[in-house]
Design brief:
With 196 residues, this protein is an alpha/beta fold. It has a single domain, classed as Rossmann fold (3-Layer(aba) Sandwich), CATH 3.40.50. Strand 4, helix 3 and strand 5 form a beta-alpha-beta unit. It is globular and about 45 Å long. The model has no long low-confidence stretch (mean pLDDT 92).
Length: 196
């Protein structure tokens, strides 16, 4: 289901965003490892969390294909088993729509990032167009059932700010080759400290 959107621009967004990842990196909800090809030499250690066992098995196999200093940890984003300030960068790509408690997951990400930490994100979100937002609300229950728990109507950018992050940059796009209710997309960087 994701092959079309990946080829139609999502892969390019991943590549551009993750080129800036440096130091100790935490990726939540690693899934099948779609981000792995895009971590560069600046990454000194990569920790990928995945709470679902079938996905974690696939991810473990995929991690072995790369020369990254990486480890896989079975943990949900809402309960990260790491000390405060353990990471320089956190990565979330199409994950904050599926977590059970988005505010708690974002709080955990902020907690485990160091004082100059950065959150890199690609997330599909609630549309700013009222008509499409209405359809997202009406179809969200169905979408959760068919799209593995994805909430297509979350106001994730507001959630990132509410967790105490400062938005350093954000761009808006559409997730091409995807149903209209999951097309609105944000790509950006948020900082633990103040921007600039």
């Amino acid at each position: 289901m994701t092959a079309g959107p990946e080829k139609a621009g999502l892969r390019a967004h991943r590549q551009e965003l993750l080129a800036s990842a440096r130091g100790r990196v935490l990726e939540i909800g690693g899934g099948t490892g779609a981000n792995l090809p895009f971590y560069g030499e600046g990454v000194t250690a990569l920790t990928v969390t995945e709470p679902e066992e079938p996905m974690a098995r696939r991810l473990a196999r995929r991690l072995r294909e790369y020369a990254l200093p990486a480890e896989l940890v079975h943990a949900p984003a809402e309960e990260l088993p790491f000390a405060d300030g353990s990471f320089d960068v956190a990565v979330s790509t199409l994950v904050l729509c599926t977590v059970t408690d988005q505010a708690r997951a974002l709080g955990e990400l902020r907690r485990v990032l160091g004082p100059n930490g950065r959150l890199l994100f690609i997330e599909h979100v609630r549309s700013e167009e009222p008509r499409l937002a209405g359809w997202q609300d009406r179809l969200n229950g169905l979408n959760r059932r068919v799209a593995h728990g994805c909430n297509c109507n979350r106001m994730t950018l507001d959630g990132i700010r509410a967790a105490g992050f400062a938005i350093a940059d954000v761009s808006h796009d559409r997730l091409k080759k995807a149903p209209p209710i999951v097309r609105p997309l944000i790509i950006g960087t948020a900082l633990v400290g103040s921007p600039g």
